[in-house]
Amino acid sequence: MRKRAGRTQVWLAQRCNISQTKLSNIETGRVTPGLVDVELILGALDAPPELLAEVTALARLANTEWQGKRASWRRGLEKRQAELAGLEGEASALRYFLPAMVTGLLATPEYIRASLSNSPVGTTKTVARKLERQAVLYESTKHFTFLLTEQAVRWAVVPPVAMAVQMDRLASISHLPNVRIGVIPTGTVVGRGPMNTFTVYDQRLATVETFTGRIVFQDARDIAEHLEVFRMYERHALFGDEVRALLGRWAADCRA
């Protein structure tokens, strides 16, 4: 389209406020354009609306990755833990929305083992890797926000006494200065239902969990939308002393 319009790379790069190197890499397929890139380039070239819609859809697909659980099982679940550790190591602001269960970063060993009980492959190494990953919570340069629903906190993954210990751990971790743990109690009026577990790493990547795998979003608009949803839920959550009081009551219920 650029060549048909008789435009140079320099002209188009300046119109789109991107570097000529990036534009060249997009044209030669070395770099996958994001949605904003597509809109800027096709807008500058006066592309028809139907072409803009088609290429925008392709760009969104190109920036979305599916990772199936069966592939993780074949490779070994501990390798997935190494990948997660890498993501956590690179990010400085990490946000976790947990509507169904407690994440491994916050879980006790017994809870982790129980949560992996449906795996068809050995989990001993995976449990060890999950526990090793928890050390990242103590890195003061990183900031974590965990949002859980009451169901996620109270879902009986392990017997009642072990659930009480798990709740105690949540309360304990909430005292870390770089960790915020919020809980949305059942009965809180929230207009949008908690569809999926998801994690946002800084503003560059979001992952969404399903029963059969996970979706990885790298497009800026998908990430921005997940951040917007996260902030909406965050406004309805209890934090600090309020959430610790709730956790204490629920733990007492389990022990009773």
Automatic annotation (TrEMBL):
<protein>
    <recommendedName>
        <fullName>HTH cro/C1-type domain-containing protein</fullName>
    </recommendedName>
</protein>
<dbReference type="Pfam" id="PF19054">
    <property type="entry name" value="DUF5753"/>
</dbReference>
<dbReference type="InterPro" id="IPR001387">
    <property type="entry name" value="Cro/C1-type_HTH"/>
</dbReference>
<feature type="domain" description="HTH cro/C1-type">
    <location>
        <begin position="1"/>
        <end position="52"/>
    </location>
</feature>
<dbReference type="InterPro" id="IPR043917">
    <property type="entry name" value="DUF5753"/>
</dbReference>
<dbReference type="GO" id="GO:0003677">
    <property type="term" value="F:DNA binding"/>
</dbReference>
<dbReference type="InterPro" id="IPR010982">
    <property type="entry name" value="Lambda_DNA-bd_dom_sf"/>
</dbReference>
<dbReference type="Pfam" id="PF13560">
    <property type="entry name" value="HTH_31"/>
</dbReference>
